[in-house]
Write a structure and sequence with these properties.
Protein name: Lipid desaturase domain-containing protein
Structural class: mainly alpha
Order of helices and strands: HHHHHHHHHHHH
Membrane topology: Multi-pass membrane protein
Subcellular location: Membrane
Helix content: 55-70%
GO cellular component, one term: membrane
Shape: globular
Number of domains: 1
Number of strands: 0
Keywords: Membrane, Transmembrane, Transmembrane helix
Number of helices: 12
Radius of gyration: 19 Å
Strand content: under 5%
Length: about 230
């Protein structure tokens, strides 16, 4: 019930932001929508890059979970999973999820939408959206600014859901339509990331991957993002 209320508040808040955009139409609206979508794609890449290479905490048993060789549907694994997750905080679990995704990419596609976007809505999407509601309410902002923000908000909030659609075959028609329009990337384009783990970190539309690749290359040249961060260690 609590999660449903949070989701409802987010939908209402986002709809209010869309209202602010629609009440003041401008020729700048479409460029702003595209710019917001680009920023969301870039943010997905930055988060992905950081999470991929940020080390998991040592001494928490995450290495045993990651390298478990038996059936992950077994009672033994499920018990180990519950015990291990109970010993880490939500951020550490998110970091682990990014590591675990690489050898088991299709697991992300099997998760429901709330599992994919819930933490983003609670920690980022809802607070930021409400803050923008207050800004719009207290002052006159051009509609195109609200349009750009709305586009960025939607792209950022649903980034992990969009990522999940790249790892399953059965997707809603709107996802397929957005791919045809170039607003979402294809599984083939995303596979370039999984092939190397050193490029194409953005997972929405991929428009910003050229920039993210430059950022990653420059950071690696300065010693950032060592390979040791890609997998949990004892």
């Amino acid at each position: 019930m609590k999660l449903r209320l949070i989701l409802l508040f987010f939908i209402l808040s986002a709809a209010l932001n869309l209202f602010w955009a629609a009440r003041d139409p401008s020729w700048l609206t479409i460029p702003a929508l595209l710019a917001g979508w680009y920023v969301a794609d870039m943010l997905s890449g930055l988060v992905h890059m950081f999470m991929d290479y940020h080390p998991c905490p040592r001494g928490k048993g995450l290495d045993r979970l990651y390298f478990y060789e038996g059936s992950r549907g077994s009672e033994e694994y499920q018990l180990l999973f519950q015990q291990t997750m109970a010993g880490i905080n939500p951020f550490q679990r998110l970091v682990y999820d990014f590591k675990n995704h690489h050898p088991r990419p299709n697991a992300l596609g099997r998760r429901n939408m709330w599992r994919q976007i819930g933490s983003t809505v609670v920690a980022g999407g809802l607070p930021v959206s409400v803050l923008f509601n207050l800004i719009c309410w207290s002052g006159e902002l051009p509609g195109w600014v609200a349009a750009g923000f709305f586009s960025m908000l939607m792209g950022g909030t649903f980034a992990q859901y969009f990522h999940g659609t790249l790892h399953r075959e059965d997707n809603p028609r709107i996802i397929l339509a957005m791919r045809r329009m170039g607003l979402l990337m294809t599984p083939e384009a995303h596979q370039l990331h999984h092939d190397t783990l050193r490029q194409d970190f953005s997972t929405n539309c991929g428009w910003s991957n050229w920039l993210m690749n430059l950022v990653f290359g420059a950071a690696r040249a300065k010693g950032a993002f060592p390979e040791s961060g890609l997998e949990p260690t004892a």
